[in-house]
Amino acid sequence: MGHGHSHGNNGHEVATPEALASRKRANWLLAAVLVPLGVLTAVAMLLMWPSGSREGITFASPYAAAPGVTFDTGRIQSVVEESCTQGQTAQQAGPGSQCTFAFTEPDKGGSPVKVVINPDVAKSHGVDVGDDIRYLNLSAVQGASQGNGSPAYVFVDFVRNVPIALLAVLYAVVVIAVARWRGFRALLGLLGAYAVLVSFILPGLVEGKPPLLLALVGSTVIMIGVLYFAHGFSARTSTALLGTIFGLGITALLAAWATDAANLAGVGNHDAATLVNMSSQISISGIILCGLIISGLGVLNDVTITQSSAVWELYELAPETSARKLFTSAMRIGRDHIASTVYTIAFAYAGAALPILIIVMLYDRPVAEALTSAELSEEVVRTLVGSIGLVLAIPVTTLIAVLVVKATGTKRLAAAGTQPAGTRPADDAGNVRELEASPDALDAYASLDTGELAAVVETRRQRREAERRAAEGRS
Questions:
Q1: How far apart are alpha carbons 48 and 44 in whole angstroms?
Q2: Number of C-alpha atoms within 13 angstroms, CB side, residue 8?
Q3: I want to staple 116 with a disulfide (CB 3.0 to 4.6 A). Which of 151, 353, 398, 439 is the partner?
Q4: What's the distance, CA 189 to chain centroid?
Q5: How many CB atoms lie under 10 A from the CB of residue 453?
Q6: pLDDT in tens, 289-345
């Protein structure tokens, strides 16, 4: 936990036996709670592990083709608008209307083929020369190219492999360049989280496993892996994990109640209707419930690890302060985080639901009716449930962190008189001075932002380094 250190000849802090003992007490205290919880989660995961069987599921895959029909890819060479042929395309577009065709060079080689572009794609986004597309090749089907007016090549989708891969590589490079080794570990933890989602949660929902337990167990496993893998095994990480699990439990309970009370059944959702027709074991309400819990994991993890670190940093600044004042000061930081995080959740969900919001706006319905409609109610409930969970997780995480740090921490400063003069955070010129170790010291620092707190911590470290060099010079 970083308390009670001496300094070695290499310039780094070396933990004293007293500090090592306090760390050990903190770890034992947290392990007494987390280890049984982890064992229980692992056992529940093994008992609920899906079999992988898809028996009883019937659906027509949109990627399955009839005999003689293939999905091909190619690059568009030119785009033209011509009169639609007297076939299905003309009937859909209307008599005498124009259709968009893309002369496409197949990736497998051969002469360019004339691909008809769907009217909705042509109107909304359009296609350009150089676009890579995937199209349905009907030329081998008898009669498809015999002059009956039916198109032989039909647009299916764009090929997005290259831009998405470039974005993924850029994201990884930026994260690793800025966060370095910790960023790399966070990316690996993210891959592990997706592995749990794909191998455990999604198949479990398909097989009709209890959605509440499925989401709780899967989310707890994800959080344990992500937090420890990205931030390492420490008392502050364990504290953040406890706060995260508490927030996760609150979110799960609220999501279970809201799903039933608000009758969230996915009515009007095309994907939900498709799943219902696939299997009688699939519960749309269960999927919505699971989604409400999982959607808040990232933000919940963010606020708990930040709040836990804030408590430790504040204790570093004033180890003599009382637990009550430490909690009060840390909560001032937490309230700012709550405000910004609530905006983050609301805008994230609003951005994902923009098409629905536009449709609702055009219908000119009353605001209350629109927000409680089948189209928007799920997003509204998701925002409210996730926000309540993370808001309650902040004071709980702060309380746990304060109790741990005060119960196990050693007093690092013998007396306030050993500190240099200057008890204010900064003078009129903006120079940050080191914090005095007095019970009221945190009051002066409670209004500092993150950058100012970082400056104070750096000043403290530089002063210790100077004292170490001076001590070595005297010896």
A1: 6
A2: 6
A3: 151
A4: 12
A5: 20
A6: 888 888 888 888 888 888 888 888 888 777 777 888 888 888 888 888 888 877 777
Q: What is the pTM of this model?
A: 0.69
Q: Encode pLDDT of 61-88 as tens digits.
A: 666 666 667 888 889 888 888 877 544 4
**How would residue 426 be classed by pLDDT, with cut points 50, 70 and 90?**
very low
- Using DSSP's 3-state secondary structure scheme, residue 15 falls into strand
Q: Per residue in 365-384, is it b (16+ CB within 10 Å) or e — as a string? A: eeeeebeebebbbbbbbbbe
Long-range Cβ contacts of 268-276 (<8 Å, 24+ apart) = 268/374, 268/375, 274/59
Q: CA 388 to CA 461: how far, in whole Å?
A: 38
- Give the total residue count for the chain: 475
Q: What is the pLDDT of residue 122?
A: 80
First to last CA, the chain: 29
pLDDT at 277: 73
Extract the tokens encoding 101: 């065709």
Q: Is 425 within 8 Å of 452 (Cβ atoms)? A: yes
CA 303 to CA 251: how far, in whole Å? 14
Which pLDDT does position 220 carry in this prediction?
Answer: 92
Angle between helices 17-47 and 211-231 (to 10 degrees): 150
Return d(Cα 1, Cα 23) in angstroms, integer.
Answer: 6
Gyration radius (Cα) of the chain, Å: 30
What integer is the mean pLDDT of 242-252? 90
Nearest partner of 204 among 224, 221, 190, judged by Cα = 221
Mean pLDDT (whole number) for 394-398: 91
Tell me which residue has tokens 């309970």.
Answer: 253
Task: Report the candidate in 430, 450, 421, 409 with the shortest Cα–Cα distance to residue 318.
Answer: 409
b or e along 351-361 (b: 16 or more beta carbons within 10 Å of the residue's beta carbon)? eebeebbeebe
